[in-house]
Write a structure and sequence with these properties.
383 residues; 17% strand; four-stranded parallel sheet; disordered N terminus
């Protein structure tokens, strides 16, 4: 009897071992390349926490098409070289279906060809337009295009009568791409860039750069284009110099921590952003309001910190992935095709309408102009 029982237990154990790999294989492997630590953690931290929350929610409901999601987050620390190594790990060792991220434009550009060659969808959380223009078959992104952000800023400058400006950018991939867009688009809005400076993204004092542009009496306004904490230092140094020139920031300013770092100097800063930062102010029935309010409630309730634009980029990347897998199954080519077919999909960044020629899917109306008042983000209404 004991021998029979022992044989039965052994058989059962063997069956469990044999079935374990198949159960694992049934799960959907989702990779993420995010700057969870390092100087870009203001981006990657909220993105990683957002993905963890969403995967938990979806798995609690049974997953996608009955399959649970295994989320594999790799911390790039904002380093392009590390992003390359981790991208290869996700593709070659982990055999992921899709990857979300990286957090920054420089990292995304560093891994772009790797995903093209691997024929694996990459949904970036970075903003530079060069990520998707020129078009790459397997590369998508969720933040609004930087050219659209530039247009929104220039349109506002036209309203304010600002014609001559200084442009400051950090030396990241986002800064470089932004400078190119600003220089390209400014003439269309009859705006002249009379000063243009590139600063170190790791700088802790930019008073010398500020002094240089302040010396040009023609400057009527400033655009600071950055995604790093140094953008707060620029603002502080400008105000500390006693200069009350209008300051415009890029859409990379949408994290309240940047405002907190700049302190009172951030008051009055103007920038374009998605509607996440004004979710509660949207009219009932707005196609984005319900999801924005729910995301803010879920995120802030779980993590006890203010939801940011950057976490929203990861939210959008995930819902795009979720919709595409629901339609295309666990096949990379079908997932890619399904993303291109997504229409009228509300996200935190706007209403997405992808196509075979548009791998961002957002239009100019995805942006609202925002400002800082009493240390908080509020809609900008002009003078």
């Amino acid at each position: 009897m004991k021998k029979m029982l022992s044989k039965s237990l052994c058989a059962f154990a063997a069956a469990c071992l044999l079935s374990a790999p198949s159960v694992w294989a049934e799960n959907i492997k989702l990779g993420a390349l995010l700057a969870v630590t390092g100087p870009a953690s203001f981006l990657g931290g909220p993105e990683a926490r957002t993905l963890e929350m969403l995967v938990e929610q979806v798995n609690a409901k049974g997953g996608i098409n009955g399959k649970k999601i295994d989320l594999l987050v790799k911390d790039t620390a904002g380093n392009p070289e590390k992003a390359i190594s981790l991208a290869k790990q996700l593709l070659e060792e982990d055999n992921v279906l899709t990857v979300l991220g990286p957090s920054s434009s420089g990292e995304t550009m560093a891994v772009k060809k790797i995903f093209e060659d691997a024929k694996t969808p990459l949904i970036s959380c970075a903003a530079a337009e060069v990520i998707v223009n020129p078009l790459a078959s397997w590369i998508f992104k969720t933040p609004q295009n930087d050219s659209l952000a530039a247009i929104k800023i220039f349109m506002e400058m036209n309203k304010l009568g600002i014609e001559k400006i200084a442009v400051l950018v950090d030396n990241s991939g986002f800064g470089k791409a932004g400078k190119e867009q600003l220089q390209k688009i400014a003439p269309d809005y009859k705006i002249e860039i009379v000063e243009a400076e590139v600063y170190d993204a790791k700088a802790t004092d930019l008073s010398a750069v500020v002094a240089k542009i302040k010396a040009n009496a023609a400057v009527q306004g400033i655009i600071n284009w950055s995604i790093v904490p140094a953008q707060s230092i620029v603002v502080k140094n400008i105000r500390q110099s006693g200069w009350q020139v209008p300051i415009f920031q890029s859409h990379g300013f949408g994290n309240i921590k940047y405002v907190e770092a700049a302190g009172v100097a951030a008051e009055g800063v103007i920038f374009p952003a998605g509607r996440l930062l004004m979710a509660g102010l949207l009219p009932d029935g707005h196609p984005q309001k319900a999801l924005l309010v729910q995301y803010v409630k879920d995120y802030e309730g779980k993590y006890k910190e203010t939801a940011s634009t950057f976490g929203g980029h990861a939210y959008d990347a995930f819902i795009i992935f979720e919709k595409a897998v629901a339609a295309g199954g666990a096949d990379k080519a079908k997932v890619r095709e399904a993303i291109e077919g997504l229409k009228n999909l509300p996200g935190t960044g706007g209403i997405f309408n992808f196509s075979t020629t548009d791998h961002n899917g957002l239009a100019l109306d995805a942006f609202e102009m925002m400002t800082v008042k009493d240390g908080k983000f509020v809609p900008y209404t002009g003078k």
